[in-house]
Structure formats: structure tokens, C-alpha cells
Design brief:
Blueprint lengths: L9 H14 L1 H20 L4 H4 L12 H29 L10 H38 L3 H8 L5 H31 L6 H7 L4 H30 L12 H9 L1 H4 L1 H16 L10
Helix pairs in contact: 1-9, 1-12, 2-4, 2-10, 4-5, 4-12, 5-7, 7-8, 7-9, 7-12, 9-12
Amino acid sequence: MRFECSPICINTSLKEAYSFLWYYKWNHTFISVLAFLPFTLIGLSGLFDPFFMPRASTELVPDGYNISFMLYIFTTYIWAIPCVILWHRLYLLGPEHLLKKKIWPILTRSMVIISKVLFLIGIASLITITCVALLLYLITEMNLNDSVSNFIGLSDNEFMRFAVIITVTGLITYLVFLRFSLAICARTIGKRIGLLTSWRLTEKNTMRMFLSFLSIVLPSTLFTYSFVYLYQKSLGLNLFYSGEILSKLDYLHIFILAPVITIPLSAMCSQCASFYLHCGGEECPQGL
């Protein structure tokens, strides 16, 4: 089946995304508190201490480290999935449909989205391995080993190299994610759109979606970073880069900052919801 893909208007998409964030700000606060609640409770209980305990790379991990690490992964990355679903439901359906009487559908959709994300990560990994192998082959065949070594040696700042690599890889990955975002949005509200269908529906809007994404995520990230920095500066805190075990007061401060810390993630969900509405996701026949 062939889908008609009309170009989206960046200004309209941005206005809608920003209006979602402002109009549903208190609902956003509720979801962000829910997102940070498990992390805060487990942190206050001291179960994160083995994971955050400073140690040399040659030292053995402390007792309880594995359990502490698993709790950290659950309360940050895994628990974020149902919260992302709630943000999508908020911006696509409104606050009256935010929560359902039965929690089971949210959990099953979380598993479906996790499986889709893992599938996309697998594809991205295969593409990355192929590109790296091709690059190494070209370097070897064209005798560019010395040139590449000299180029890499121009910079001694490993962090900058890491940041550049992560930035480029992240941008490419997110371009692909944008093309599949309609399928993920559909699942959050109980509808079904295939990955290939999502790809076809967004084929004329890749750069428009990307520019729109930058126009909302970059300002929201800058606002979050500035607010958190000024908050810590005014209170003499170092919540994220101290290299020490967080105190109970630190966890409470992070919990207070939850609505601000989650603004970029909420903005991304708001933008994806706008893409879903403007790229034909709502009119798309289900199950394709």
C-alpha cells in the first residue's frame, strides 16, 4: 500500500509541541515525580551505596554491588519506559486518558516498546560494525594508517574525541529513530503501526523532523542544565559529579529537581506526539 506523505510545517509542529509542554505542565510534574520516586526511595534506603562507592579500578567491587547495580538499572533505564508511555499518552490523548484502571496494558506496552528498541539497537549495531569494517578496509587498502594516526594524535583530549563520536553517532541514530517514531507512539496509545509503515509515512520529513527536534530539545536541555547548575551553585551542592556516595539530602534535592531534569525527555515525547499527528499516524489503517 502506498501512503501519501505531505511535508510537515516546522513552525506548526514546534508551536504544538511547546503548547503541549506548557498546557500540561502540572501533569508533566506528576509523571516526573513518578519517574524519580523509585530512585529516590531506594537511594534513601542506602541500597545504592555499593554502586556509588568510590574505588580504584584495581579494587574488588564491594558486597552488594551487583544488586545495587541492578536496582540502579531498573530505577533509571527500565522504569523510564512506562514513564515515557505516560508522557506520550498525555500529549496524544490528554490527561483524562493518562492512567487506566488496569495497569497491565501499560506494562505489556512497555515490553513491546523495549523489544522494538532492542530490535532497532540490533540493526544499528550491525550497520555500525559494517561501516567500521569498511572504514578499516579502506584505510588498509589505501595505506592511510600513518595519516589517520597523525590525525588522531592532533588532539590529546580524550573527552573531546569521545564527545564528538557520541554526538555524531547519536545524531545519526536519532535520525533513524525519528523515522520509526510513529510506530512507537502508536503502541503507547494502544494502536499498531508497523516500522516499515512509519518509515514510509515520514520519508519526506526526515530533515524537517530533525530540525524541529533540535529546536525544542536543545533549548529545553540548555534550560535544564542552567537551572540545575544555578540550583547547585546557590546551595553549594554537587549532586552529579562529586565522585562520592550521595547523602539522603542529595537524593531529596534530586527528587525536587525531577520536574526540571525530565523536561528534555518530556519535550522529546511532546515533539514525537506532534509528528504522529501531522505525519498521518492517526489516519493510518491499524495493523500495517
